[in-house]
Amino acid sequence: MDKILEIKNASFSYDNENNVFEDISFSISKGDVLCVLGPNGTGKTTLLKSLNGLNNLKSGEVILKGNPLNSLSFTEIAKVIGYIPQGHIPTFPFSVLDVILMGRSPYLGLTESPGEKDIKIAENVLKNLNILHMANREYTNLSGGEKQLVFLARVLAQEPDLLILDEPTSHLDFGNQIRFLEIIDNLSKKGLTILMSSHFPDHAFISSNKVAIMKDKHLIDFGTPENVITEKTLKFLYNIDLELLEISNNRKICVPIKSNSFFDFDFFKE
Ligand SMILES: Nc1ncnc2c1ncn2[C@@H]1O[C@H](COP(=O)(O)OP(=O)(O)OP(=O)(O)O)[C@@H](O)[C@H]1O
Fold first, then answer.
1. What are the ABC transporter domain coordinates in residue numbering (predicted)?
2. pLDDT at residue 184 tops 70
3. How far is CA 139 from the centre of its chain?
C-alpha cells in the first residue's frame, strides 16, 4: 500500500525540557482512517499539529508522501494535507462560498483571485456534501454543525490526499456525529486518507480501520479497532468502569458504568 504519512521516533516539547510525547512511530497508507484516542491533555492536538508542520519536532521526523515534512513549504504541505483544527472561528462574515474558496489558496499566486475552475471545484464539493443551498449564507451565522461541514468543504476544496481532523465531531449533535463519520467513511472509500482525534472509542468502531492509543507521553498501542480497543485498555485510558458490548452487524459499542473518582460535595451544605 502507498504510505502517505510516516512518523519516526518523534518527540515534542513546548519548553525544550518537558516532552509532551516521546518516541512515537507509525505510518498510514492511502484510504486508511486512523483514529487517535487518549485522555484530555495527553498530546493528541500537539501530535496532529506536528504531523502537518505547525509544530516542529524536538527529535525524529515526519515523512509526507516520501518527502521529509521539514523540507516542504506550507503551500506544498497544504496541497497534500487538509487540516481542521479544534474550534475554528473566522471573525469576518464571509459567505460560505468564499470560505470554501479560501481552500484554493495553495493553488493561487499571492495576488491571484480564485478563477472559474476554483469556483467549479468549490461548488462541486458543496454539492457532494449536500450543502449547495448554503453557498451564499454568512459563515458566522451558521450553527456549529453547519460550520463543521463548511470547514470540511473548505479543506476538501484543497484537493488533499490526507485530512487531519482534530476532534471533528465535538460540536455535532448525536445524529450529525454519525452522519459526519459516514462522510469520512465515504471519503476514505474514494481514496482519501484520514487521521482524526476523538474522545469516543465508539467512533473508531464506526469509521476507522486503525487506532492509535496515546497515554503518558507514549503511543501505547496501534492496530485495528478490534485488536486495540479492549475493555482493559479503555479502563486504563479513562479510569472508569465500562463494558464493550457487541450489537447487530458485529459492531462493538462502549458503555460506561461508573467512574472510579470520589467527589466530595460537603461544602455545599454550609
Ligand atoms: N501552546 C502550548 N504551549 C505550552 N503547552 C501547551 C501548548 N499547547 C498545549 N500544551 C500542553 O501540552 C499538553 C498536551 O496538550 P494537547 O492539547 O496536545 O492535548 P490533547 O490530548 O489534544 O488534549 P484534549 O483532549 O484536552 O484536547 C497539555 O499539557 C497542554 O497543557
1. 5-241
2. yes
3. 21
Q: Cell match 449547495: residue?
A: 132
Tell me the best of 11, 40, 45 to mutate to test the pocket of ligand 1, counting ligand atoms within 8 Å of each CB and taking the most: 45
Q: Are 31 and 192 in contact (CB under 8 A)?
A: yes
* Run of H or E including 153: helix 144-157
Instruction: Round to whole Å and give the CA distance between 270 and 236.
Output: 36
ipTM value, please give it. 0.98
Question: Which residues lie with the beta carbon below 6 Å from any ligand 1 atom?
Answer: 14, 20, 38, 40-46
Ligand 1 atom nearest the C-alpha of 48 is 18
Confidence at residue 90, expressed as pLDDT on a 0 to 100 scale? 64
CATH number of 3-230: 3.40.50.300
CB-based contact 69:62 (threshold 8 Å)? yes
Extents of the domains making up the chain: 3-230
Kindly tell me the burial class for residue 179, based on how many C-beta atoms sit within 10 Å of its own C-beta (0-12, 13-18, 19 or more). Answer: middle
Ligand 1 atom closest to the Cα of residue 46 is 18
Instruction: Please give the distance, rounded to the nearest whole angstrom, from the Cα atom of residue 5 to the centre of ligand 1.
Output: 22
Dump pLDDT digits (tens) for 129-160: 999 999 999 998 998 888 889 999 999 999 99
- Determine the distance separating the centroid of ligand 1 and the alpha carbon of 270, expressed in angstroms: 36
- In tens, the pLDDT along 192-237 reads 999 999 999 999 999 999 999 999 999 999 999 999 999 999 999 9
Residue 18 to residues 11, 12, 14, 158, Cα–Cα distance (Å): 10, 9, 7, 35
Looking at the CA of residue 39, tell me the nearest atom of ligand 1: 25
